[in-house]
Amino acid sequence: MDYKDFGLVNTKQMFADAITNHYAVPAFNFYNMETLDAIISAARDTHSPVILAVSESALKYMGDNLLMGMIWGLNLRPENGVALHLDHGTSYESCVHAIKLGFSSVMIDGSKLPFDANTELTRTVIDFAHQYDVSVESELGTLAGFEDETTHGDASNYTNPDDVVNFVNATNTDSLAIAIGTSHGAYKRKSDNEELRFDILEKIATQLPDFPLVLHGASTVPQSYVNTINTSGGKISGARGIPPEQIRHAVQMNICKVNIDSDLRMGFTAGVRETLAKNPEIFNPRDYLGAGQKNIYDTCVDEITNIMKSNNQIKK
Fold first, then answer.
1. 87 has catalytic annotation
2. Catalytic one among 87, 148, 261, 263?
3. Where do the domains of the chain lie?
4. pLDDT, tens digit, for every residue of 123-144?
5. CATH code 3.40.960.10 for 3-308
6. Interatomic CA distance for residues 297 and 11, integer angstroms
7. What is the distance of C-alpha 316 from the center of its chain?
8. Contact (CB, 8 A) for 246 and 195
9. Which partner for 157 in 34, 74, 126, 142 could form a disulfide, CB atoms 3.0-4.6 Å apart?
10. Coil vs helix vs strand at 54
């Protein structure tokens, strides 16, 4: 189906507006009804544009029909500023599949390939996607860490600023994810002293002025959630995210899309674990899933307002 039939939009105009007005569009990953509802409610209540991100493994988990049925049930209109995005598509086929389902944006992640192979794969996906007015995100450089079967890496490889102009010109990509020290998962830094490579970001932003740049692996991993999980039976000691002030600084340097996944997972898990630990007699899923859902909502509102600064960018 055409994404416009679902009231979705692609990311081109929202990124242009974000660059002009110096904010970032949040891209929140979801996996089920509770996570989707929390994200869209937070975006609506803060009047923020939002990108609903789905990884290949999350799409497999939810299934094509259930996923698109939930999107249909949101009763979206283009003026709501909502995009549905395939996160870390690993192949031409997976991107084509998402586009035919009704996704308005796809990411083709060829970052682990040699430069020429990444360029060729990206250009092939873009040639197809642009026929349907679907926007495409690509990636140069790789992130370490693990989130799921299709979002992981053993080692980081910073984006080479000397490659970006040639890559963008050769592929006609709509946005570019870069690697400046963030990572996937809940263990993003070994110490509190680590800083993102703003020197790399500055060189890239200088060479690609007003071009949409994307930051993956940018969750802050709130320690309140970590503590709640650990005191409620969990074991995730040592989890450490990216400080909010560093993300805010990156947003002021042409980063116009920030991906958040681990924060939502942490919040959801903290809510569920705490509720069950304090109320062991509970067996109604709505009781403990609702607690997780509220944490996701609160996290999205906080990050939209205090990190992305995308609140009130959609007219009431």
1. yes
2. 87
3. 3-308
4. 999 999 999 999 999 999 877 5
5. no
6. 23
7. 24
8. yes
9. 142
10. strand
